Amino acid sequence: MENKKANCIVEVSVDSATGRRAVGIMNMRQALELPEMLSLTYTHPDPVKAAAGIVVNRQELAGFLACH
Hints:
Blueprint: E1 9-16, E2 19-27, H1 28-33, E3 40-43, H2 47-51, E4 55-56, H3 58-66
Antiparallel strand pairs: 1-2, 1-3, 3-4
């Protein structure tokens, strides 16, 4: 059975000295397949929290995917 959380949509951004820049919008599985970079952040998988501007790091995103 496929994990439905893997299909939740997040925005991936890169943080730099000039601010945060969007890389793309993808599902959580695709986001976690990106190369590990400390500068990447991800919007919270909960749409309400994402709309509030809450971002998570790669470890936190993987934790959301692991929780069923």
